[in-house]
Amino acid sequence: MPSERPLGRIIALPKYDDPRGNLTVADLQGGMPFPIARAYWITDVPGGESRGAHAHRQCREVIISVSGSFCITLDNGQQRETFHLKRPWEALLVETGVWRTLEDFSSGAVCLVLASHDFSEDDYIREYDEFREYIARNPKK
Ligand code: TYD
Predict the structure, then answer these.
(1) What's the gap in Å between 98 CA and the centre of ligand 1?
(2) 97 close to ligand 1 (CB < 6 Angstrom)
């Protein structure tokens, strides 16, 4: 029986409190697990909508709620865990080969995603059945 593929983990980003406004940093020195190749953000999610139900083959992602809140459920085929992201300095690392679903967006939520690779449609696994086959064929080393 192969060991479980890691789901991900919360990373506490360095935050500089300041009476003029707080500042948070995402860099390698401060705990980012990879150099950032790409950033994208999701806004204006209507109530009840969900986004991002897929997995990636190569791309690792760090997901941050820079405003408002939302939930991310991670699923490695054996185990599921839901994270409620609600603070701009709490980042969630999503490992490769993990099915992730974003939902329960609050009004005005802004979801920032920092990615390890450029966009490539070939890197996506978009069907859950295909995901199950992928993890069966690619057990964690
Ligand atoms: P996608 O990651 O598929 O979001 P979701 O799983 O929530 O549907 O992104 C939606 C579309 O946006 C995708 O089909 C193509 C485009 N897109 C880019 O062109 N570049 C990017 O970096 C990302 C993330 C998406």
Answers:
(1) 17
(2) no
- What is the share, in percent, of the chain residues with pLDDT greater than 90? 92
Cα 114 to averaged position of ligand 1 atoms, centre (Å)? 13
- The 3 state secondary structure assigned to the chain is CCCCCCCEEEEECCEECCCCCCEECCCHHHCCCCCCCEEEEECCCCCCCCEEEEEECCCCEEEEEEECCEEEEEECCCCEEEEEECCCCEEEEECCCCEEEEECCCCCCEEEEEECCCCCHHHEECCHHHHHHHHHHCCCC
Please give the domain boundaries of the chain with CATH numbers for all domains.
9-137 (2.60.120.10)
pLDDT value at position 118? 98
Which residue's CA lies nearest to atom 1 of ligand 1? 52
User: How much is the pTM?
Assistant: 0.95
Q: Is 8 in the pocket of ligand 1 (CB under 6 A)?
A: no
* pLDDT in the model for residue 3: 62
